[in-house]
Design brief:
Length: 613
């Protein structure tokens, strides 16, 4: 989806991803300032804003990390502009410090924080439930369940934030971010005047004396938001009977599908919650009073369940409440299968044995792999050649995390973004073993710098390998502070990575990881040293290089000698361009990127011939 997000007329129907619908919704809400740190499943939102940013009525930036993104937008909302900040769920952990205080300080221009949660850990190291951040920080919370709701709730969340002058959480999950559906466009505002900033330190500077009344103000705002939740069109009731279901988020869809497919629609009561915090207590209490049994259908934590149980106790409502651990799990994604099993159990119906999520055991396994021509493969091969199993490998978040798989086995532990240096330094200090920490260029800018400074300050014995592929590859090739080129052309203000490392107190060594001999020589020199050391393995991601028109036109490698002698190279590199045809090793010309790394490892592999022009 391109310019249509900016140009579609009111009433026009668009086929949008949930993430694209969020873009359109905030545009309809008058967003004028957008910041982010990219992370799946949120990445399509900032990527769309980036593609549309030239000549658009808003400012956009890929911030260095989520904390900075929220702080930059926090300043912009204080200046009166409507703001959107986007990140994945674990990014909110990074942004939590300013987030908790921003709710006290307020958001005069309006600010929506998109938290894209990931039940099932499709692309994440945990499946935390960020509805809890709404409760912790005092943030009104919306949870869309369709592409249309993504658009409408994004618009209305920004309007509510601007009206109440408080940050609002828009909480999505992977299935909703990546759902595709029809979306009816609304009006785009012609102009949005910023709210004038009036100096008032007692309101905007949270010293202890002013933070206490700020908290009181926030609690008052939440009561106003609760009244709005009571009347919200996103909270709806249908059906009849003594059995009721309360659901939110994507679980609303699963329940609706089950009721429709099994002919149960209308025979049970359903309360769907789209604005889920503050809780519309009166509406829920009224619903509970009509039921003998209520089932809470929500993914991950029992957030609504616990609050509804407390509400029933407080209001003296006698109703059986069923939730986690009885018929529905506390972990992983839901589906119609486990929701159907819960519905049938409560209604006393049998669930067909065929209605399971069983996966055939004879399906071939296809583990993820580094792309053909990826410079990380070469870096891992060289590190393993020098350090083998003697070193302990501290890893980080990015494409290169795939180094934990065979044949490289170059990831022994990982905590979070930027942790490879800090955690690696701690491990080295505690164990006395050699440690090699891997971190990408974008991740280093995000949160690796402080770890390196700490390693220098306390002389930790650690070798840091910065895998600099000139982009933020894992989440879609977004620019980071050190890139040379973006899809719009040359970056006018790249941050000098090596100068930054020197400023931290270390003289780095830079190599092209695809030069095997030079990389091994640098690693061998480092192996004989102690203290903090940094190797910058710099070579562009081949996919990104093609996208920005900088890819070298190199012919594919080819087998010219005994194919049997290439099997060790195949086993040690696991390049997707390697293939076996009729039991004979070969190189797939369509897959080969022409990096020529394998040529350096086997005399039986040679560069291909360039075509005549």
């Amino acid at each position: 989806m391109g310019k249509e997000l900016l140009t579609a007329a009111a009433g026009e129907t668009l086929l949008l991803l949930g993430n694209e619908a969020i873009v359109r919704g905030t545009l309809e809400g008058g967003v004028r300032f957008v910041t982010c740190y990219p992370g799946t499943p949120s990445s399509e939102v900032p990527d769309a804003f980036f593609r549309l940013s030239q000549g658009a009525p808003y400012y956009f930036e890929y911030s260095v990390n989520e904390k900075v993104a929220l702080e930059v937008a926090g300043g912009a909302t204080l200046a009166g502009l409507p703001c959107l900040v986007t990140m994945k769920h674990v990014g909110v952990n990074v942004a939590a410090d300013p987030l908790m205080t921003l709710a006290y300080v307020s958001a005069p221009g309006g600010l929506v924080l998109l938290s894209a949660d990931d039940p099932g850990c499709h692309s994440s190291q945990n499946e935390q439930d960020n509805r809890l951040y709404a409760r912790l920080g005092g943030l009104p919370c919306f949870e869309p369940a369709t592409a249309q709701e993504c658009k409408d709730m994004a618009r209305d969340a920004l309007a509510l934030s601007r009206e109440l002058e408080t940050p609002v959480l828009l909480r999505t999950t992977t299935r909703i971010n990546h759902v595709r559906g029809p979306v009816v466009a609304g009006e785009l505002p012609r102009d949005v005047a910023p709210k004038p900033f009036v100096k008032n330190p007692a309101r905007f500077v949270p010293l202890p004396a002013s933070a206490r009344p700020m908290h009181e103000r926030l609690l008052g705002v939440l009561e106003v938001a609760r009244e709005k939740a009571e009347a919200s069109p996103y909270n709806t009731e249908r059906g009849q009977g003594a059995i009721g279901f309360v659901c939110s988020g994507v679980a609303r869809n699963y329940l609706s599908d089950v009721l429709a497919e099994d002919g149960l629609e209308g025979t049970v009561r359903v309360l769907e919650l789209g604005m889920t915090y503050p809780l519309p207590e009166n509406r829920i209490a009224e619903f509970l009073g009509k039921c003998r049994t209520v089932v809470i259908v929500e993914e991950l934590e029992p957030v609504l369940e616990n609050e509804i149980r407390a509400l029933a106790q407080k209001r003296g409502i006698s109703v059986a409440i069923i939730g986690k651990g009885e018929h529905l799990p506390r972990r992983g994604e839901y589906a119609t299968t486990n929701v159907r099993a819960a519905v049938n159990a409560v209604l006393g119906r049998e669930t067909p044995a065929a209605d399971t999520l069983a996966v055939p055991g004879d399906l071939p396994k296809r583990p993820p792999n580094l792309c053909a021509g990826c410079p990380h493969r070469a870096a891992y091969y060289a590190v393993r050649e020098v350090f083998g199993d003697d070193a302990v490998y501290s890893s980080d978040i990015g494409c290169y995390t795939l180094g934990f798989l065979p044949p490289f086995r170059a990831a022994d532990f990982l905590l979070c973004m930027g942790s490879s240096i800090s955690a690696g330094a701690g491990f080295a200090r505690a164990s006395g073993k050699p440690v090699v920490a891997f971190i990408g260029d974008s991740t280093f800018f995000h949160s690796g710098i402080t770890g390196l400074i700490d390693a220098v300050a306390y002389n930790h014995d650690i070798l840091v390998v910065i895998l600099d592929n000139r982009t933020t590859a894992m989440t879609g090739h977004q620019p980071n502070p050190g890139v040379d080129t973006t899809i719009f052309g040359e970056n006018p203000n790249p941050v000098d990575l090596q100068a930054l490392i020197r400023a931290c107190g270390i003289e780095p060594v830079k190599v092209n990881p695809l030069n095997h001999k030079a990389t091994v020589a640098a690693l061998q020199a480092f192996a004989a040293q102690k203290g903090p050391r940094v190797l910058v393995a710099e070579y562009p991601c081949p996919i990104h290089a093609r996208r920005v028109g900088q890819a070298k036109k190199t012919p594919p490698a080819r087998v010219v000698g005994d194919p049997e002698t290439c099997l060790a190279v195949r086993d040690n590199l696991a390049c997707p361009a390697f293939a076996m045809e009729a039991g004979v090793f070969t190189i797939n010309e369509e897959q080969c990127d022409g990096c020529m790394y394998c040529v350096q490892l086997s005399a039986a592999i040679k560069p291909g011939k360039k075509e005549a022009r």
